[in-house]
Amino acid sequence: MWPAGSAIPTRNITGSLNGPFSVFVTANGDVYVDNGYKGRVRKWTLNATTSVTVMYVSDVCYGLFVDMNNTIYCSQAHTNVVVASSLDGNANSSKIVAGNGSSGSTSNMLYFPMGIFVDINFNLYVADSDNNRIQFFKYGQMDGTTVVGEEASVSFALRNPTSIVLDANSDLFIVDSYNTRIVRSSSTGFRCVIGCTNAGGSNSDQLPYPWALAFDSYGNIFVSDYSKNQLLKFIFTTNSCEPSFNQPELCPTASWNLNAITFADNSTVGLFPRSIFIDINNTVYVVDRTHGFVQVWLDGNIIPTRNISGNFTSLNNLFVTINGDIYVDNNYPNGRIDKWSYNDTTSVTVMYVSARCDGLFVDMNNTIYCSQSETHIIVASSPDGNANSSTIVAGTGSSGSTSDMLDSPTGIFVDINFNLYVADSENDRIQFFKYGQMDGMTVAGVEAPVSFALSNPTSIVLDADNYLFIVDSNNNRIVRSDPTGFRCLVGCTDAGGSDSDQLRYPWALAFDSYGNIFVTDEYNNRIQKFIFQTNSCVHESWHIPSGII
């Protein structure tokens, strides 16, 4: 036992234990230990030096749980059942609550059940290991439902899961043992969170043979690794539930100095700059399409402090996640999206694409989206899948203007609810696709509920209040939505040009944490910075919406 903050154990519990497999501790400090090879479960009360038998069992308990009603559960893998007994009754009295004693895959059967979890409604979750699934048994029911596995309502392949834990939102965290990883559920499905290299190993980001997991009060995950005889601690990234980019909270009357500062010109960013990204630390990333690398400016620097280069021949777009991973469209002739992990000097391919990405986005579930203007679709790929595997999430593959079609889509944005916004460029509109839906709704353009003419929009960004900021490229301006409709913010001279208050075919925009707007002014070969006028809002503030675990 390790008290909080201690690096070495301060106590060990012994006493006639023979190969214990599982342990559970209740809120009052009572410690329950499987002593299945001796046919019993033992209990140590807080600070006691001796134990008592609380349950007799016929097999080792691969999983052990005590619910809020003082009922103890034992998962008996070799007999393919989960048994339960009241701690207020006779230790010899137990009953089967899941499984029928024979191995099988029907709804009332289990095959080598291991980890178990009982929720506050006394429903039972079982890591049905050799069936490669997680089974859910509603309280009092013997027929289970597959909630994770290839036969679940949302199919997700597991290999010998050994442990199941629920968080406060009833999202599942699973030790997917033979896939050497930890996976979790969310509102959009399942994804890998630890050991996502697709190979077991001894590196710090790998798991040779994980067995069980547990959370501490800070959200850190502890994993027991069976083959390496070690406990691993994975630190929760406290800002991982927030977006990696700035979303200012701006009043409807917010305005910017119409005369921009040139942040970078063609001597720094090359010709025809398009993609820009600014993270929450105000680090600026710009794709230098001329020289084939990514330029990086740390906050406050006026010259790049780093450039990222690789096997690039036609860079087009980039995105940076909260942990500092950099995703770049490395399309022609490579046809792929590459990722640089934070401070790495080499990249890995995370997604293969059939056309260049004129928009690139990574959502809160680490799903990668690529907007392919040449094929008139948006494709998405899970980080847990094969790099060759992607799904069309918007568009049909043919150009058109109906609700399910796109025409040369460019910039994209995914909100915290995983809804997709698309700059449907040749249709002169912004399309909104509710998560999981293929029929979009026009939210900006002449056919929107509030009609507003756009001409080849190329970029779409949302602020903290979900107002739209749009690069209206052929109109050489930036426009925004507000409670009354739409209005022009910068480049409102009705003519493109190279003066400080003009833009010439701008492509993308990004906010810094102060609310300033950076614009890639493509045909002027520069990056323009429009300063937010703090006095334009009486009670201005900025925030990035917080998420939950």
From TrEMBL:
Report keywords, A-Z: Repeat
What PROSITE patterns does its record include?
A: NHL
| Protein name (record) | NHL repeat containing protein-like protein
GO terms for MF: zinc ion binding
InterPro entries attached here? 6-blade_b-propeller_TolB-like (IPR011042), NHL_repeat (IPR001258), TRIM-NHL_E3_ligases (IPR050952)
NHL repeat segments run: 502-533
Q: Does the keyword Transport apply?
A: no
